[in-house]
Specification:
The protein contains 10 helices and no strands. It has 2 domains: 41 residues, Orthogonal Bundle (Arc Repressor Mutant, subunit A); 128 residues, Tetracycline Repressor, domain 2. The radius of gyration is 19 Å and the shape is globular. The protein has 193 residues and is mainly α.
Length: 193
């Protein structure tokens, strides 16, 4: 449970981050349905209208969280060596940022036309698309298969549905083994033959 610090005065420039952090805490502990701007203002020790200054409304706040999540995810994926490593990094991101992960793929909670969200989402998708090139004659099939597998594994992991199956094994290693079974070795380019 996050510790509140009502005695700490609000410092100019900290409000946006303070509200985002409080929102992430609430989402991780109670889910997005429990989120209210009024409660977040109380947690941040500011007036109930202050969060609306930065986010306008709940959808604006959740859109900011999803945008930040996609930026964090694309930064993590950029370091991947191959498709299997990309999937492992996807699972690692979900485990490290469960509140972001819950929001990023919930279009019903977000502003669908937000330009920053659309750009951040496209960066993530572009990395996934590029990573699957050569795994299937139809790149969209490879993209859907790889994304579904990583996203499904991450979702099952976060809901503790894999606890018995993992039986103490490292989730990242388990996913890496699964990816190896599903996708096999990294394909060689035609010029390498």
């Amino acid at each position: 449970m996050p510790t509140e610090h009502p005695e700490r005065p609000y410092h100019h420039g900290d409000l946006r981050r303070a509200v985002l952090n409080a929102a992430l805490d609430v989402i991780a502990a109670e889910g997005p349905a429990s989120l209210s701007l009024r409660d977040l203002a109380r947690r941040a020790g500011v007036s109930h209208a202050a969060p609306a200054h930065h986010f306008k409304d709940r959808a604006g706040l959740l859109t900011a969280i999803a945008t930040e999540g996609h930026s964090l995810l694309s930064a993590a994926l950029a370091e991947a060596d191959d498709l299997r490593d990309l999937g492992v990094r996807y699972v690692r991101f979900a485990a490290a940022h469960p509140a972001h992960f819950q929001i990023m793929f919930r279009p019903d909670l977000l502003r669908p036309d937000d330009s920053e969200l659309l750009a951040a989402r496209e960066r993530t998708r572009s990395m996934l698309r590029t990573a699957v090139e050569g795994y299937d004659d139809d790149p969209s099939v490879g993209f859907m298969a790889a994304w579904s597998m990583a996203h499904g594994f991450a979702t099952l992991l976060l809901s503790h549905s894999l606890d018995g199956l993992l039986d103490g094994r490292n989730p990242e290693a388990a996913f890496g083994a699964l990816a190896g079974v599903m996708f096999g070795p990294v394909p060689r380019s035609p010029s390498a033959g």
